[in-house]
Please model this.
Amino acid sequence: MDSKPDFLLPGQAIPVTQVEVSISARNVLDMDTFSKSDPICVMYVQKIGSDDFVEYGRTEVIWDNLNPDFVTKFALDYFFEERQELKFELYDVDANTDDLSKHDFLGDVFCSLGEICSSRRLELPINYRGKECGKVILSAEEIGESRDVVNLEFKATGLDKKDFFGKSDPFLAFYRMNENGSSTVVHKTEKIKRTLNPTWKPFNISVMTLCGNDYDREIKIECWDWNRSGSHDFIGEFKTNMRQLTRGATSVNEYEVINPKLKKEKGKKYKHSGIVSLIECSVHPRYSFLDYIRGGTQIHFTVAIDFTASNGKPDDPNSLHYLFGDTPNIYEKALNSVGSVLQDYDSTKNFPALGFGARVPPDGQISFDFFLNGHDTNPYCRGIDGVIAAYKQSLKRVYLHGPTNFSPVIEHVAKFAENHRGGHHYFILLIITDGSISDMARTQDAIVNAATMPMSIIILGVGSEDFSSMEKLDGKVTSSDGTVAVRDIVKFVCFRDFLDDNDAILSQSRLAREVLEEVPEQFLSWMTMNNINPLNLPTVKPMSYNTVV
Model:
């Protein structure tokens, strides 16, 4: 067989993590006359920008067994922001050859890696010439090195005075000692101004970064007096290791700070340049995005579409909302690109779909959060295809108007996020718009509020308008009263930067990647900020839309 293909394209994101896929099958077809089938499973992956699948690997053969549990695992780079399509084919091995055409085909299964990762145990029917013949059972485990994090806090007493007119402004610098004898700086504390007895703020650092997961590897810690010029004064240094630090705030973690130059100059008169003591050392796991998804956290995807008049009348071929047969308009392309990825993480496959900026029946009032499906109380659409169908129907029953107000749809989703802070649910709002925002101040207030909730916002600009005003939302937003958002939850992307008429599939894949690449970190920032560990629950009760209505 050929070696595993390289699927990391130029400009492609670095994988969130690597996972190991396990495969079992039950009740596979029995193709042998005098014994049972001898199944093998072949896994294929779909290359980005292509409909073709390429073989990735094969399991071992399980002889004489209709319910195989394959030992061979497949390690795959996992990208949250991409829909990674997989195909599994089963064969009954009949000859000593790698040529699959020489073996009996037992059926195939299609799914995405996201579907496997979001399920503890994904069971799918085996399709054999249009019939269901057995099932495949898939699971994924995250693999990789230790992801432990250590929380450290230090204080010092009696540090040397380095400033002529005042006391020192000390800070600590931590170095990982490398195997070749060199050192790499891995952390610096904040400076504490005008004191010889500082207590530095506690900080977190991964054990891998600090010592390469080797608890006996030497760690060098230097103490410096900060100077505005950048030419800091060396106070002294000491060495330790993780094994010693984990013994806690005892005498073994009280360190004499030694300045080799002063020691050489003063000889026996030199004792030390101060004492640094450990206040706290605690090691805890740093959970990944997949830890939460596999633990049962559900991703809820809501879409809000711009129905303002600046899009152009839907019956005008130049309109962004123009519908022409089976040819998708720019809003449909955006929905397909992003929604096809997110739907794998919502077990219900039901998505609230909102519109804003239109006059809606029966009274023609302007609405900024009407339901695309026309229902008065239930905004849910079945799958991304259901969202697109509801969007098309809305174009026939509403009148495009304005202005372009974002705050109502942000506040709408925030109501649900506010009532689901326990880690069971996380909300993603996709706003697709053609123009500049009309209620910037109120939108900034809504974003600052939403940043305290399990929620991310994606703004996708379509059309040829100037979207420069959107850039101020992509970062730490400040509200009208001066409050700064506690975390960055907004991602703005301009659709036209990803249009490629020569390769529509690849351009939509790149768009989805750009739009969604920050979501895992935003997700983790909220979980970490609220001290929420993965739930590890067997099931999660689906969120009811009636919770806050």
The chain has a mean pLDDT of 86. The CA atoms of residues 175 and 538 lie 42 Å apart.
